[in-house]
Amino acid sequence: MKRLLRPAYWWPGMDDAITNHVKFCLPCQDSAKAHKTIVPDGGPIDKPDRPWSKLAIDITGPFATAPHNQRFIVVLIDYFSSYPEVLLTGETSSPRIIKWPTEVFDRFGNPDTLVSDNGSSFVSKEMKEFLATRDIRQECVPLYEPRRNGKVEVFNRTLKHAAQTFEADKKSFENGIQQTLFSYRATPNEKRDSPAKLLLGRNIRTNFQPRQSMDKPGTIPDFMANRGHHTTFRKHFKVGDLHVVRIRLLHVPKGKSPFTSTFRIDKVVGNFTYRLDNGKIWTARNLVPFRHPPPAAVEVSGHA
């Protein structure tokens, strides 16, 4: 959210205001987003030197919160720009998968290389013939090594946590995915270039940006653009803390919140071990802080 706002806005204490909004945002807390980045360990994913040269394709799902005809998401992402395209579908057969890249390639052009796993939809005779007719080279990652297609795996994780967020916010699955794509394509990276800018050669205007601010140099203060941001998390609670904790569930259908309802800490049983007000005992690693929005919190449109 900070990267979306900085090209168009600045006010004293802006970073803290946005951080507090996201920290107390209930749907954002329900997403339980982790910030560990998947680091590919070798394999055919060298970054190309130009956009739309090497793409990755994958299927993620099924999503428990999606309609039956949208429970799978097919993802195409450009290795150079990180610009994503997605298809919501209830069918993952080769003919259905092929029909969609045909439409995308007719719009953006044929890539040189398509990276995929060894799923039956991607290694079928129909898929090989489709790629051959368009002179696209296929690279398949080794079996049981999805991390080697890390670009698309990281984006799949973004979709999963986004689905948790807008499910908690009572948004429709399709609208939530479209909102996620819009924000992802427009958000600048560390070098101030968004996926849209790298692929299309221009920024796309979001709801946060007035018309006159687009593509104007110097709209981001240097002292803000060069600032690093780090998040710390303390899992040591005390009786009487204002913390409300929620229990992290181990097995959660995709798109569902990984937390139970809220509980308060009733007693410190041992080192990092606590009894909750429901009588059950948990260690700190299973408890996640829950923050009530402050009464006078300023409403900011949108979520992280």
TrEMBL record:
GO molecular function: nucleic acid binding
PROSITE patterns the record matches: INTEGRASE
Domain of life: Eukaryota
Domain Integrase catalytic positions: 47-218
Entry's Gene Ontology BP terms: DNA integration
Pfam families xrefs: Integrase_H2C2, rve
PANTHER family: PROTEIN CBG26694, PROTEIN NYNRIN-LIKE
Protein name: Integrase catalytic domain-containing protein
Organism: Macrostomum lignano
